[in-house]
Amino acid sequence: MFPTQKVKSLVGKFIQVEMKGEQNILVGKLESVDDYMNLLLSETSEYRDGEKIRTLGSVVLRGNNIILIQPFKE
Amino acid sequence: MFPTQKVKSLVGKFIQVEMKGEQNILVGKLESVDDYMNLLLSETSEYRDGEKIRTLGSVVLRGNNIILIQPFKE
Amino acid sequence: MFPTQKVKSLVGKFIQVEMKGEQNILVGKLESVDDYMNLLLSETSEYRDGEKIRTLGSVVLRGNNIILIQPFKE
Amino acid sequence: MFPTQKVKSLVGKFIQVEMKGEQNILVGKLESVDDYMNLLLSETSEYRDGEKIRTLGSVVLRGNNIILIQPFKE
Amino acid sequence: MFPTQKVKSLVGKFIQVEMKGEQNILVGKLESVDDYMNLLLSETSEYRDGEKIRTLGSVVLRGNNIILIQPFKE
Amino acid sequence: MFPTQKVKSLVGKFIQVEMKGEQNILVGKLESVDDYMNLLLSETSEYRDGEKIRTLGSVVLRGNNIILIQPFKE
């Protein structure tokens, strides 16, 4: 399975994302992903040191500024 | 809905944008977006910690330096 | 009007540009712009906190490192 | 052997990766790589100063934010 | 004249370049430039606060990490 | 000679590379380079202030995060 296929396989599930220029981790339900790894998340929250610090709702993340994506484990 | 379609669906509405290399959040009315997620905003303001600190008016934001886009909730 | 068209409409006028990796704002007369948003400015100056701190003359700015472009308001 | 072929030759082996915006080194088993050098790793861990500090499991790393890839030597 | 044409017009002349991730300014004779604004410089030196601090000789600079190019004025 | 040709001409020789997000300089024997300036180096070492601080062996460097490449002068 290629990296982008792996990301597509996570649609409908909660993922966590590290962004360049974001100290906190974003956790949200993956609604869609395109070939540039741009992401649409819903029910997004910001986490710092394992604690939820902010609720963001629906967000679009720019693919080229993503560092790391992984399934969310609470 | 794909991430870029989500952004296009926000044309005419106020959005908030986090840019790489900008500590503050930009809030403006989305006038247009292209396939690279370059954005044209009008009535743009800069916010820090939830407070408006500067009025910018009409701005163009370079897509590849966008971190996060979301609908603006006052 | 798309974002790049907006930038093209500013040719011949003074604009201000925030670059990644530049703390100061660049102000110059926009001579040309290409599809990557690379910019050629003339009569360029560097501004910090609203004050002109350096004169640069003719400069080329790399499009992918641009954060924000706006018309210059003195 | 070209750089991307070198990376492909490491599929099935443990590699270590330095990412932009990550102080720690990521070590994982390379499951797949695409033409953009996006990586899918399994059994991933984070290392700081040679010590494992966190277990991440399965992660996708965005190719354009990779600095350096090398075979893992314990 | 488009931005890349401007850069090409400087071949054979000394230019100064600001790079992302480089605090110092690079000054060198522009030997060649390609469509990505990758640059080949000869007789390159590093300048800090207007003083030459290091001689580098022949260097290749990666276009997408260039912030600003201008003709060198001693 | 174009910038990428210059880099190709260095295959088989030792080069030094400055990477974005790496404080140290990497020195290694250039094994191969592709059109994106991704590099495969062997016998790589990390240098800080002119002193070798670490031996890395075989590494792949991502082209878009390269700042500067030059022939290595011991």
**Structural class by helix and strand composition of chain A:** mainly beta
Whole-number average pLDDT of chain A? Answer: 95
Biggest interface between chains = A-B, 21 and 20 residues
Question: Which descriptor suits the 3D outline of chain A?
Answer: globular
Low-confidence stretches of chain A: none
Tell me which oligomeric state these chains represent: homohexamer
CATH class category of chain A: Mainly Beta
Number of strands of chain A: 5
Supply the CATH architecture of chain A.
Answer: Roll
- Note the beta-strand portion of chain A: over 45%
Cα-to-Cα separation, first versus last residue of chain A: 25 Å
CATH topology of chain A: SH3 type barrels
Structure description:
6 copies of one chain form a homohexamer. Chain A has one helix at residues 3-8, and strands spanning 14-19, 25-33, 39-48, 51-61, 66-71. Chain A is mainly β and 74 residues long. Chain A has one domain (3-71): Roll (SH3 type barrels). Chain A has a 5-stranded antiparallel beta sheet with strand order 4-3-2-1-5, with no helix packed on it. The first copy, chain A, is globular, with a radius of gyration of 11 Å. The interface between C and E is medium-sized, with 21 and 20 residues.
